[in-house]
Amino acid sequence: MKLVKRIVVVLVIAFAAFYLITRPHDAANAVQGAIGAVWGAGAAVVDFFMALAAG
After folding, report:
1. Mean pLDDT, the chain cut into blocks of 10 residues (55 residues total)
2. Predicted pLDDT of residue 39
3. Which contacts of 33-37 are long-range, i.e. CB under 8 A and separated by 24 or more positions?
4. Can you spell out the DSSP letters for 7-38?
5. Do 12 and 19 form a contact (C-beta atoms < 8 A)?
6. CA distance 31 to 55
7. Which residue in 21, 23, 42 sits closest to 50, CA to CA?
8. How confident is the model at residue 32, as a pLDDT?
9. pLDDT of residue 24
10. Which residues cross the membrane (predicted)?
11. What letter does residue 36 receive in the DSSP assignment?
């Protein structure tokens, strides 16, 4: 099972490197989208707790 996990990790890293080298603009857009999603989720959690504290 460890071997399969290691192979999958290597394949994912190889694909990410290939994508970054062949399509850097698209890779940058994907990273920006992921960061935006994480930021939006964090803001939603903060809004939830602020509303919960306000009553």
Report:
1. 94 93 93 96 97 91
2. 97
3. none
4. HHHHHHHHHHHHHHHH-HHHHHHHHHHHHHHH
5. no
6. 37
7. 42
8. 95
9. 92
10. 7-22, 34-54
11. H
In this structure, the dihedral spanned by the alpha carbons of residues 9, 25, 31 and 18, taken in order and rounded to 10 degrees, is 0
Q: Tally the residues of the chain.
A: 55
Instruction: Give residue 1's pLDDT.
Output: 85
Residue 28 has which token pair?
């940058």
How far apart are alpha carbons 51 and 21 in whole angstroms? 45
Which residues in 1-55 belong to E strands, given as ranges? none
Residue 33 is which amino acid? G
Cα dihedral 47→51→53→54 (10° resolution): 130
19 and 26 in contact (C-beta within 8 Å)?
Answer: yes
**Per the structure block, which two tokens stand in for 20?**
């970054």
Q: What is the pLDDT of residue 55?
A: 77
The pLDDT value recorded for residue 10 is 96
